[in-house]
Design brief:
oxidoreductase; 2 domains; 15 helices; mainly alpha; Cytochrome Bc1 Complex, Chain D, domain 2; membrane; flat; two-stranded antiparallel ribbon; binds heme C; heme; Cyt_c-like_dom_sf; iron
Length: about 450
């Protein structure tokens, strides 16, 4: 009886094991039979507690990835982006002003390039810049590649005398020449570095890297995709206020920049800022934050109707890109909401409105992909920066200090003259009163 029992148990367990194994096999079968799409329950947006101003979430890298954005090209572009040796002084890279270790900008009012020179406007973020229809505050470049030609030779940015001089720095590094050959080999039929390292390929590679700088999956995106709990009570209030005030009439679309279809198409969405320049509160802001010092898009088109027009900037990650506006004069997000409200909507925002909208804007902060400083190719045993680069810099500093000294001297002289005049007057008065008293 006992033996029979044991045999039954053995048979039962073998049977169980066989069934389990079969189950496991069929499970692996299922996962091998193609990608199992995790289709998310996409709640209807009108079931959400508050209808979002823009119903599309962050489009993600796939939306702007170009066919030939290969891994090798992106890596080359990243190296060039981080390489300060392409600047006159060997100190300024794209990352100096567009720091991808943080908000993709420089946290300064206006950008500072070689020799401490500052330009007229603030550095915008490079995060999500691949989605822009045009580049720069005034939209003077259509594409990222076209944009990247500018800073290399701008004297307030990387300060190279011309593009050939910048390319010669790159050509001097064998590692770079090899990388260009690897990436663009198909179209190269020469082994002359001059033919291999061209401006077109340089900015093409930088643009390919910049297109990877996307920040999806913000709390706002999660909300739009149907997670009603992704936003707090105050953030929802802020979202409602954002719509009631009319902010989304300009800051619409998934980038909150007026448009995102046809990225890099050159079809800019611009708006005048300030629109309500006669609003009393706006008048103060204009004065305080230099809002009407630059011509805006008129500087590009020469058309008076474009005066004070600016590209509607993205509000993605805006909490990390202070200070604000093209002048970089507005220090806080709250203040920028007040400025927008007064100058664009003729409305004096209450403290509560401002706080709520600020809370909402922080929900547009997405997930930043991890960034690593790349290793840069090095020439062997020789300097990449000409030996007089430092000399130039010293000369400039001396000149600047000399100017300061001159100013100091003249101030001192004026001061001494005033004191001398005062003493002479006092002496004369004393003398006169003595004479009177006599
Ligand atoms: C000295 C600081 C500085 C350096 C260096 C610099 N930039 Fe910029 N960048 C700026 C400023 C300032 C602007 C805005 C200029 C304007 O709109 O007139 C800008 C604009 C941009 C824009 C347009 C973004 C938008 O929202 O319109 C991109 C993209 C960009 N830069 C990428 C680069 C790349 C790539 C490099 C390196 C080749 C680079 N920058 C080097 C300061 C800098
Ligand atoms: C009529 C169009 C328009 C409306 C309405 C509008 N904006 Fe703007 N917004 C702009 C433009 C154009 C700029 C760039 C202005 C500049 O740099 O001088 C801007 C800039 C901003 C900035 C600064 C971004 C940066 O990177 O420096 C913030 C923040 C902002 N807007 C938020 C808002 C909020 C919040 C509202 C509603 C209260 C609003 N905007 C309403 C057109 C508009």
């Amino acid at each position: 009886m006992g033996k029979l029992w044991k045999t039954a148990l053995l048979i039962a367990s073998i049977g169980f094991l066989i069934t389990a194994a079969a189950g496991a096999v069929s499970a692996t079968d299922a996962s091998n039979s193609g990608p199992v799409l995790q289709v998310q329950e996409n709640n209807e947006t009108d079931e959400l507690p508050v209808e979002p101003p823009t119903e599309e979430s962050h489009p993600g890298y796939e939306a702007i990835q170009q066919e030939d954005d290969t891994e090798e090209k992106i890596e080359l572009g990243e190296q060039l982006y981080f390489d300060p040796r392409i600047s006159e002084t060997g100190t300024i890279s794209c990352n100096t002003c567009h720091n991808v270790m943080e908000g993709g900008d420089d946290s300064r009012p206006t950008a500072m390039g070689v020799h401490g020179e500052t330009g007229p406007v603030a550095s915008p973020t490079v995060w999500n810049s691949g989605f822009h229809h045009t580049q720069f505050w005034d939209g003077r470049a259509d594409t990222l590649a076209e944009q990247a030609e500018g800073p290399i030779v701008a004297d307030v940015e990387m300060g190279m005398p011309d593009h050939e001089a910048a390319l010669d720095r790159v050509r001097a590094v064998d590692g770079y020449v090899e990388a260009y050959e690897d990436v663009y080999g198909d179209e190269i039929d020469s082994d002359d570095p001059d033919d291999i390292v061209t401006l077109e390929r340089t900015v093409d590679a930088i643009a390919a890297y910049e297109r990877t700088l996307v920040t999806p999956n913000s709390p706002y995106d999660q909300y739009v995709e149907g997670d009603a709990d992704a936003l707090s009570e105050q953030e929802l209030d802020g979202m409602e206020t954002f719509q009631e005030l009319g902010c989304q009439s300009c800051h619409s679309g998934p980038m909150f920049s007026g448009q995102w279809e046809n990225p890099e198409s050159g079809e800019g969405v611009y708006n005048q800022h300030p629109t309500f320049e006669d609003n009393a509160q706006c008048e103060e802001y204009i004065e305080e934050y230099d809002l009407m010092e630059n011509p805006g898009r008129m500087g590009v088109t020469d058309d008076e109707r474009d005066e004070y027009n600016y590209k509607v900037p993205t509000l993605r990650n805006v909490e990390h890109t202070a200070p604000y506006m093209h002048t970089g004069q507005v220090a806080t997000l709250e203040e920028s909401i007040r400025v927008m409200s007064a100058c664009q909507l003729d409305h004096e925002a209450s403290d509560e409105e401002v706080e709520d909208v600020a809370a909402f804007l922080t929900t547009l902060t997405g997930e930043y992909p991890e960034q690593e400083m790349p290793r840069l190719p090095n020439p062997s045993g020789e300097s990449m920066i000409p030996m007089d680069a430092e000399g130039d810099f010293e000369d400039m500093q001396e000149e600047a200090e000399g100017d300061e000294d001159d100013d100091g001297m003249s101030l001192l002289a004026i001061g001494a003259a005033i004191i001398a005049l005062a003493l002479v007057t006092a002496a004369a008065l004393v003398g006169y009163s003595r004479y009177e008293n006599q």
